[in-house]
Amino acid sequence: MKLGTTKWQRNLFIATFILPTFLFFCVFMIYPVIQAMYYSLFDWSGSSDHKTFIGLDNFKEMIHDPIVWNAMGNDYFLVVGKIIGIMILATFFAIALTRFRFKLSNFFRSIFFIPNVISVVVIGVLWNFIYNPQIGFLNSFLSLFTKDKVDITWLGFTSHTIWMLLPPAIWAGIGFYMILLIAAIQSIPESYYEASGLEGAGQWTQFRYITLPLIWEQMKVSILNIMMTTLNGSFVIVMIMTNGGPDNSTQVMGSYLYQMAFTQYHFGYGAAIGVLILIVSLITTVILQRLMHQETIEIS
Amino acid sequence: MKSGGLNPIFKIIFFAILIIWGLSVLYPLLWTLLDALKNNDQFFRKMPWSLPDIPLLWSNFTYVWSEFSFDKYFMNSVVVTIGSTLLGLFLAATTAYVLARYQFKGSNFLYLIYIASMMIPFSLALIPLFFLLNSMHLTNSSFGLILVYASTLIAFGVFVLVGFFKSLPKEMEEAAAIDGASYFGIFFKVMLPLSQPGLITVGIVNVLNIWNEYIIGTILVNDPVHYTLPVGIAMMQAQMQYRTEWGPLFAGLLITMVPVLVVYMFFQRQIASGITAGAVK
Amino acid sequence: MVSKTRLAALGIAALLAVAPLAGCGSSKEEAKQPEPAKTDETTTKTDEGTKTEPTDSGTKKLTGDFEIQYFVGGYGDKWWKKVIADFQAANPDLKVKESGGPKINDQMKPRWVGGNPPDFVYIDGPNLNDRQMVEDGQLEDLTDWLKDAKNIDGDKITDILAQPPQEFDGKVYDIPLVLNSWGVFWDKALFQEKGWEEPTDWQSFLAVSDKIKAAGTTPFIHTGKYPYYINGAILYPAIVSANNNDISILQDMAASKVEAFQQPAVMTALKKIVELRDKGFIDKASIQINHTDSQMLFLQHKDAFIPNGLWLPNEMAKDVPGGFSFGFIPSVTQDAGGKVVANTSTANVAIAKNAKNKEAAKAFLEFVFSKAQASQWAELSGAPSNIKGDISASNAPSHVKDAAKYLTDANTVVVPAITFNADVDKAMQDATDALTISKITPEQWVERVVEAAKKASK
């Protein structure tokens, strides 16, 4: 009997702690999203009060839409570029600010995080100004070293313009991962390094055989997170900086979704792109996890 | 040799890299301030890094503050940010605690749902979300915004706090249980105080995110009385496209940026230690 | 390690909340409209003060709620504030609600979808397209009403419109309130100082551009981020000129008829853009900049010509350097001796099909389309309204008078309202951008747009 009461109490407790949250979550997050995905089965302008059910036609059309493929390519370019750029720099900073004992380490640590607290709108405006061909920072700076005025249109190449969106994305993303890796490094017992130091191991050896294996788990999480946030969120900076142009060359899936759903009056099609983003994210997560599956060493 | 010798040449190179990166972060902030004090003419005639002319146009700030009712938006932002952060924190913490400590049917599945939801492109949901709130008579209201924002914070909060609760030692709960504390008592009297660093971390991250949010705000609020700061900025930016007032635009950007920077400056230790607590077991 | 879960997050919360701010999309170009223009005016003051008190003695009293949606862009909102206040004063029992702002089109969209729109809408700015609204069945059919509608002064509205409304399958859904024209601007003062001739046709345009380039100035800048500027001011007039001044080709294009895009006139027009490109007349910066940036560079004399609309001087009023004097011509692509082609652009007003107070909305139309309000519009927004009037004696800015001269000249081809299908429009914009940076050939331009038109006409 006592046991029964406890069990009942336990269940009541679990329910009171789980259900309200779940309710909020379902009502304000899941329900609208599911409803939006349901629209991917319709031909709907997004501004009309009637819609036509067309089954999977939106998805079939997507296969023949070169912009979708191009956008997906750009997305993966950003994913790969950001993972490489952010992980190298963030790891470097994390190690430099912990293992190298530089002066001002704390100062650097706090300012490097600043881009992460700034709204992406500000970041977009800022970098647009840097890239501005006539009055921008970059060309003005380069012109100091050349005879003629430099007038490169950084965001207007016939191809590969997407490359130019990588620096702002990396710049804005590093701080968080750096803090993460710093935390991981600091949790490695100093004795490991001391022991290897006695054996004459240099910084590189220590990095390769102590630091890297022990922070690999955090790096994996970071890589997954970069992938997810990029596929899902990189479109904001794209829309602010290039609007997907010129000629759709910087379009990513998210910006194309927005373009279709909200400015070209194909909400159903946009919703289908949203479903695509979700599927691509899930598949990529699984693949990345397989790829990175490697024995991790746990401390303690 | 402290921590394995580092070649002095490398040391100098590395330090230089740190300095350069630091400048790349700090300079834009300074630049935003300088440009907030310029007028259009200076924008287009002078070098991007040149100083603003004297007299400095501080009037850009007062102009923004009054012309665009930034004082009102500021208060709205404060209310919405605090309200949704607290609510979101509470919703996330309760679920996270249960998920971390109690196994029940479907608990893993529930956890997965929260995590997977972070991959969904939420911008799609804007229109259905509007209808939902409209039918509940919650558009154009700070309360409605708080409910929605709090819900968007749940997944992230659960994500971080489950890990955090798991990392706390079980002994104290066991001791409290033996003393006859109820499930609720254990949570509120023992676990919540213990998990303060984690809660603060999540809270601050939430504050930063909500403070900068404007898309949902734009759709759910179209009465200037209820605008938040980022919505105000977005409106102003949209308007700027037709009026080109760069100085005031940058002044507005700065007004939105300063509070988050201040929050960050004050709480950076918590942010770092919170991430640490979550990241490393 | 437990942690996979926890830490990852910071960025994530952010992404849950994101979406774009985006550029201005397609701002002022929205609608344009049909028929030869007569006059348009812009005045600071015409007749009896600003407002005769609207003595609608005979009419019944308007009551209930009445909501007006208006976009705030280059024209500002002064006129709207004033006209709404006036209308409210004239109808004290009516509860007028205004929903205005630079993002109002996005903000109100859910309500249109939900069947709960405002009563009255001003169609201007990004993400609001009259063709789409008509297709979506959002707008009230005004055909019959307009036939004998009279404004508050007793004038027949159709008689005083400079540009008649665009017809969709023979029906009228919205009425142009603002009349504008695309065209090419330059600084008269600068041209005089340097001894450059003002262009009157394609040959003289190219000739003076050569001179300008030789003098070290870039001849031509456009708004590459929003290519509808160059399409509206250069490409479409060029197509009409190449089509023997027959405007039906543009109307067929607007109706997404595939053959229209395959006409030789389109190719001829595209080759003119290629010519500009190959002679190095187009400022390289164009491709990545938005309208305000390109306009500023133009005002700073970094570039001599800019394709734009008549709103330009007002939009940039605060930044026009002293001594700057706007020169304007609706088109430069006609051959010497050929007619000037004025591609007009209008912003329209309409009544929602699901309006709850159509009576008030119609009364508001009658109120708005009066001479008094027209002159008030000109005064408060600095742009020509769509109501006829003689402005030659007024103190309207010189470029507006220039434009009026062109629009009323028998030797001008006035292109009526064209709203393209949104997909075709986007395809043309992208293709033109690609053309200006040598990414594609004119043949590929046609190919692409034909593809889009095929899809759209399905």
Task: Describe this structure as you would to a colleague.
The complex is a heterotrimer of chains A (300), B (281) and C (458). Chain A is mainly α. Chain A has one domain (36-292): MetI-like (MetI-like fold), CATH 1.10.3720.10. In chain A, 71% of the residues lie in helices and 1% in strands. Chain A is built from 13 helices and two strands. In chain A, strands 1-2 form a two-stranded antiparallel ribbon. In chain A, strand 1 and strand 2 (52-53) form a beta hairpin. Chain A is flat and about 75 Å long. The two termini of chain A are 42 Å apart. Chain B has 281 residues and is mostly helical. Helix content of chain B is 76%, strand content 0%. Chain B has helices at residues 8-36, 40-45, 59-67, 70-101, 107-116, 126-135, 142-167, 171-178, 183-194, 196-212, 215-220, 229-243, 246-279. Chain B is globular. The mean pLDDT of chain B is 82. Chain C has 458 residues and is an alpha/beta fold. Chain C has two domains: 25-177 and 348-383, D-Maltodextrin-Binding Protein, domain 2 (3-Layer(aba) Sandwich); 183-344 and 412-456, 3-Layer(aba) Sandwich (D-Maltodextrin-Binding Protein, domain 2). In chain C, helix 10 (228-242) crosses helix 13. The relative contact order of chain C is 0.21. Residues 1-58 of chain C have low confidence and may be disordered. The interface between A and B is large, with 91 and 85 residues.
